[in-house]
Amino acid sequence: MRGRARLLAGLAALALILGPALAEARPGGGSSSGSRGSRTYSPPPVTRTAPEGARPMERTTTPQQQAARPGMAAPAQPARGGLFGGFGGAMLGGLIGVGLGGLLFGNGLFGGISGLGGVLGLLIQVALVVLLVRFAMKLFRNRQQPAMAGGPNPNAMQRDMQQEARPAMGGAAPRTQPLQVTPQDFNAFESMLYDVNAAWSRRDEATLQRLATPEMAGFFAQDLRDLDARGWRNETRDVKLEQGDLAEAWSENGVDFATVAMRFSLIDITLDNQGRVVEGSPDRRSQAVEHWTFRRQGQGAWQLSAIQQPG
To answer: Which of 83, 129, 209, 238 can bridge 140 by disulfide, Cβ–Cβ 3.0-4.6 Å?
Structure first.
């Protein structure tokens, strides 16, 4: 009986650790992906919708030296010997592995501490492991977060307001210039929020290739394959834009860019091959705040070029 309880508790710990990955299966995979031209490695200014700013890009095909502004030093790369790098990463991974192994085989997280015996003590140890892993991941993410630039942008993405893009603060590169964004553009951005989610839920890669840049369409395709490998599919339903505002908009080398902070609600569920819900609820709405960057060349249509998560 005790062995079964330990096994169940160990599996629960793994589920808690892997839970955030399941909850972030919507378009973009819960990561910061894509490109923002020369500003790919610069965070967009904070806004009322997204006061925490945005995480730096975790998946991008834009070389860092290409995105760096002339006359400015490129952002520092994380050291190889960081929290999860080199010997420190191996040691941390080993400690977590030993701790989970101890839980599963009945020795406890620290082995010799007999006072934590029994199911209650085991559950306490499981909670400690989960907290340690999440704290380490958060610390690692914060160490990679560059300083925020700019201040709140009072513009709200509403159809009945005349809006103008503000130039980015902090000294734009000479090859960029401010871009005026029209209400029609904001309507297109809102429509793309709905259309991308609908195509994602249908697994319609052809439509995603039309709505997004080749880079983002490639990330979407990879995320869908990753879900397939697990025997899952993700659906986002009844998406509603709750609030949005412009972070920055600019032109460079004949290409227009606009980054918009959006807070939206939706039904976000992940299903297995038998149609059983493995994450989320078809009856409970969830909230999301993301930065979406759109790209347009010449007189062409806007395409989604990046999705960034809050910082």
So the answer is: 83
